[in-house]
Amino acid sequence: MNTNEIVEKNIFKEDVVSFLDVINNRIEYGVVFRVAWDLDDITDEDESDSEEEEEEEDDSDEEDTNEEEEEDSEDKEYNKKKQSVMEEMKRSGYTYFDEDNEFDHLDVDEEILREKCKHHHFKSDTGVLVHLIRAPVYTEMEYEQLTLVDRTLYLADFVQRIQQPQPTGIPNSNHQLGKVLSTRKQYSVYPFSFLAQNQNIHLGQDPSQMLHLDHVDQLTPFSNSLVMNKSKTVIGRVIGYQQDLVVRNLANNRGSIIPASEVDYIFIDPVFDSNPCPGKTITFGKDRFVILTVVPTKLEVNWYYYLDENADPPPSSIKSNQVIVFSDDYQFSVIGENVLFVNSNGIKEGAMVFLTKTWCTISWQDGTITEELSTNFVVVDSLATDYFPGDVVEPAEVDEKTKWGVINSYNPTTRTCSILWNIPGREDCAEEKDVSVYSIEYLVDYNFDESDFVFKNDSALIEKEADIVGQVVGRDKCRLLINWNNGCQEKVLPYTLCLIEDDDSDNEEEQNDDDQDDFDIENEEEDDDQDDDDDDDEGEWEINSDSDNDQNQQKEEKSGGGGGGGLISNFIHSLKSLLVGDDHQQEQPKQQEKKEKEEEEEKQGDLDDNGIQKFQLLTSIENHAYYSEKMTITTKLLKTINQEFKLLETSLPKGVYVRGFSEKMNLLQALIIGPEDTVYENGIFIFDIFLPNNYPYAPPKVFYHSVTYKLHPNLYVNGNVCLSLLGTWHGNKNEQWQPGFSNLLQVLISIQGLILGYKEPYFLEAGYESQLGTIIGKRNSSLYNEEVYLLTLETLMFYNNNKPTVFESIITNHINDKIKDVLTRLDQLLDQSNTEIFKITLPPSEGFLKPLLKLKSKIQSIEKLKEEEEVKVNENENE
């Protein structure tokens, strides 16, 4: 697909659109369910299709026949149910598409239909799958046939104004981003009382039949709401409720109550959805009624947040009058939802939201605030260094982390901020201008979005007039404006507050940890039987992981031999003795000595330009992330390790160094130099490797030693390495670990080439591939590379001052050899006439050049020290 076409398309999932039904010559309205140019959807679909095709090829003819029979049976049952429902709907006057209509996608079960549509095959690259508002119907339309009606934006969404791409295709550095502060909607609704009397109308054709309202209420205050128990110790979310229905008999106008225990036995007229709501007509027993009021009686609550750790958990099923509902100033309703409105007689009446029109209040990075139609904007992904007014930050330098401040404004051209620094003990703030975005960092615990629910972290700070829980509704310099649940309002410093997190929130990096652990467990279980069978009669070497890490701190030899070859020879000799028995040990001493010498020479392995071995086996471990992992090494695993070592000794690419340890043969460490012409150029990246019991039937574990902020989408600060070959990312089968074919060398080459060798790593972030060719994609990729190159230089500086013993000589030689190249590259970046170095397409900003100059100064000081040492060495030699 031509990614340049993506730029021109202004239709996204959840957009409200309209189109002309040419057969019936009428306007239809719908919500976008899927779009063909969503690259992530396409990738998943293609992979799923390919896997299905492979499975079908492996199936027998008999199985294929059975599947076809089952499908025929399912189709017959489906068509039978469909015909029955359509006839019932026709008798009830409900509008639907008949068999001859091109929009014939009606299904009995909406959820089943939605699931089918997730695997919909688009007819073209510009197809859009639309869910009609007036009926449970999905239809594919062409992009050009659709008109954008409304776009729902959510609080804290990052947006950009829609604009035409520049002729050069290069993003405009002045094109700032905005953040959604609040939304307001105009609702076009159909009262249920009107629909009950006009069941044959075509919804949406006559706007005069709808009411246009600026405000509607939810059906009950408990709809998916946060609540608190009466003692104010535990918070939960309502996940369901039972309700009594106050109804009026249509035959005799008598009022009555249908208790919650009998609500399941009512039949709501087919013109409506299945949710009871005032104004809907129903059948109960032999009588017909109209619903007047819905009265929640009992709630189902997921209690998940404890304000008092010692509090007893409330019952999950609780009466509605035994909870306190959170007051939410930011709640809104969506299309298709049942709502309440006050009619001209002052009575609350039920209605269905058919259309909406949305305005958004946007806080722009330059400090301005506007309210505009949501259709003027497109949601975009921001970078870690994209700051917005109100963001709380602190200095990046460790020795300056004694203060915090609030972003007042941000200049996207210079990449600098104006910051209001908080002065402890004072109400006012001190402003500082032109602060580089690379010299500050986001202070997570102090940042809150408008609409967040909070409470004070110290009960002694709670004002007498205030409630325990409140909602963030605004900002005033360094303070937040809180509406407490009892209506009291207060300005509060952010560090005195705690966020009430949502019950389904997950930490991304913790999730990645869980995914990796799950994979390891699955592989161990999958191959457990195979390993048990293979290892029954083999010897085992137990490694005691509980022993103290009392290790000899042995430095790596700086010369080429360095003793590594001898250790490898000893290991191989021990292994052979174990495998072939005592006969092998009866060789004559001279023959044995000669053989060991030959093996030692053979095991010298590849050397780098400085004569240092790329692969080397050391005696003990200095520091390793997996040192405490319990492990039983079998002779079979030792054979595999021997094969891996042989391959590593002769095949490591330039810039990759590996160290093994005779103390624990299943642990290795790797140092990889960042490839040239990438933002990781000349950077130093160190990884710990662990070979599990069931290796090579399961992939190794790899831990990344992070010494900066996150500098690659696949390398996490917590050490996770996201790679299909390691099972930590769900790639296709060809990219995953394949026992008998995959090996450690492949893993190292993949990290060097696929991770560190990727020139625009921004697009490796999950979901960002769809931004290829877009303006926001080019902008973000360029700015991302700016930040990453600074972090790469930081890794170089860190390891210059903190050289791990096992890689000390490698790091020293690398810095000595490449320091002039690094300075030359810095000069190229500082010379603003150079363009598109490292795929940095935007002109270098002031915010980028400032830290670059600081780093250049530090690197020059290293070069100066090196030159001074060389002078001393020469003087000593002359003496």
UniProtKB/TrEMBL annotation:
SUPFAM superfamilies: UBC-like. Gene3D superfamilies: Ubiquitin Conjugating Enzyme. It comes from the Eukaryota. Residues 43-84, 505-566, 583-609 are annotated as: Disordered. Pfam families: SH3-B_UBE2O (PF23043), UQ_con (PF00179). GO terms for molecular function: ubiquitin conjugating enzyme activity. Keywords: Coiled coil, Transferase, Ubl conjugation pathway. Residues 852-879 form a coiled coil. PROSITE patterns: UBC_1, UBC_2. Residues 636-797 form the UBC core domain. The active site is at residue 722. The keyword Coiled coil applies. Residues 583-597 have a biased composition (Basic and acidic residues). CDD domains: UBCc_UBE2O. Residues 43-75, 505-549, 598-609 have a biased composition (Acidic residues). This is Ubiquitin-conjugating enzyme E2. It comes from Cavenderia fasciculata (Slime mold).
